[in-house]
Design a protein that fits this description.
This protein is 23% helix and 18% strand. The protein is of the alpha/beta class. The chain folds into two domains: 143 residues, FAD/NAD(P)-binding domain; 52 residues, no CATH class. The strands form three sheets. A four-stranded mixed sheet has the order 1-7-6-5. It has a four-stranded parallel sheet with strand order 4-3-2-8, covered by helices on one side. The longest helix is centred in the middle third of the chain and has 14 residues. It starts with a helix and ends in a 22-residue tail after the last strand. Its EC number is 1.14.13.-. This is Flavin-containing monooxygenase. Keywords: FAD, Flavoprotein, Monooxygenase, NADP, Oxidoreductase. It is an enzyme of class 1 (oxidoreductase).
């Protein structure tokens, strides 16, 4: 009944932003500062985007932390200090949460909500966006800040459905800790993610095997720590 009611009376706004990663958070901030009525939609329960989902062991930034920071706010830049040159996932997610708190961005987002359709109405010159909650939003602009690789792809391996062990995907790593002690682990892929997983999981297991179509050529990132505290007081 509520879904039907929402569908009959669409919510109107100036801009719809889909995604609460770094791009979506900035879009919300920028358009809000320009005076627009903006609504954000995010499938996760909080901000962070890829750094909310990617919690696998060893996950970290592959460029220097300061280059991953927002540069549009002096307050944000002055109040946050990275603890490492190449920040790990927990610190990057903490940074995203700090920015969301500092700039009061969460109030503009609908969390745990997915867009099921986004259709352009040529006559009305509006995007008509429907969510899995049954709500319909209309706006002249719809910004897709969902990222280019936001949907994980399962490996196409014959017999994978018959695998009796635990199957984990890096992009949708469980939020609760995984006990690897005494287990045999296979890692498929030796890109940056695979290498990071192998370095950390390999310390905990009885046997760790990796499989890759191409040979990887990693080099040490040379991470250095900062003497200053990361978390703003």
């Amino acid at each position: 009944m509520n879904a039907m009611k929402n569908a009959e009376k669409p919510t109107r706004c100036d801009i719809i932003v889909v995604g609460a990663g770094f791009g979506g958070m900035y879009a919300i901030y920028k358009f809000r500062e320009m005076g627009f009525n903006v609504v954000g939609i995010e499938a996760a329960s909080d901000v962070g985007g890829v750094w909310y989902w990617n919690r696998y062991p060893g996950a970290r930034c592959d460029l220097m932390s300061v280059d991953y920071s927002y540069g549009f706010s002096d307050e944000v830049q002055q109040e946050w200090t990275w603890s490492e040159q190449f920040a790990a996932q927990p610190e990057i997610l903490a940074y995203a949460n700090f920015v969301a708190d500092r700039l009061e961005l969460r109030k503009h987002f609908q969390f745990e909500t997915r867009v099921t359709s986004a259709i352009w109405d040529e006559k009305a010159k509006l995007w008509r966006t429907t969510t899995d909650r049954g709500e319909v939003l209309e706006a002249p602009f719809c910004i897709m800040a969902t990222g280019p690789i936001s949907i994980p792809k399962d490996p196409e391996i014959d017999g994978i459905s018959r695998f009796k062990g635990q199957l984990l995907r890096a992009q949708k790593w469980p939020h609760e800790p995984i006990d690897f002690s005494g287990k045999r682990v296979g890692v498929i892929g030796t890109g940056s993610t695979g290498i990071q997983v192998i370095q950390e999981v390999g310390k905990l297991v009885t046997n760790c095997l990796s499989s890759s179509a191409r040979q990887a050529g990693p080099c040490p990132c040379g991470t250095m720590t900062s003497a200053r505290n990361t978390t703003p007081k």
